[in-house]
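stuck on this fold:
=====
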Amino acid sequence: MTFTSIFTRQALLSALAVSMAAGALPTAAAAQQAGRPPQGWFKVCTKQEDNDVCIVQNLMMANNGQLITAVGLITVQGKVNRRIMQVSVPSARLIPSGIQMQIDGGKAQKLDYAICMPDKCVAEVLLTDQMLGNLKKGGEVVFTSVNFQRAPNPIKMSLNGFTGAFDGEPIEQSKLEERQRLLQEEMQKKAEEARKKLEEAQKAAKEQQ
């Protein structure tokens, strides 16, 4: 699945855009194994009908590929002009609490959830000039969601490289597809290793009986 097929005009203007894209992007481990720098902020641009669409993203994922936090700043220019910020976190969140965004220990801003799916919840807010300026000047941002046990789950994300990604050139589609392929291969490898370990443990348990 590529950005070209994901980001239809309808998806771009909904809370599904970043959450759908998150499944198509690589972990830092896969990028490092490919000889590329670890995952951080990067930009992807595409043409969708009469609109130019750019998305600046950062993803944090566990070693097993499970989403921790995904952030996307989506800029649509053309027939539709809109800038939004979306933050995706794991499901089973306390909906009224939303996601609290705090830059460099400053005043927290609440991001309301737009949609929840079986594997993630997505919060969305209009991206203002002030918010963008604060992100560019900041050193780190903390996104805090509250799980169903009412326990806050703060996730820190470095803003190092954010300005360069936002103002710089987008990553080429071919490189993005290559990263996606490497991620899929890495996840398949881990799944096979986990299967073998389980089989070995089951065999050892039978031998001890």
Q: What stands out?
A: The first helix runs from residue 3 to 6. Residues 1-38 have pLDDT under 50 and may be disordered.
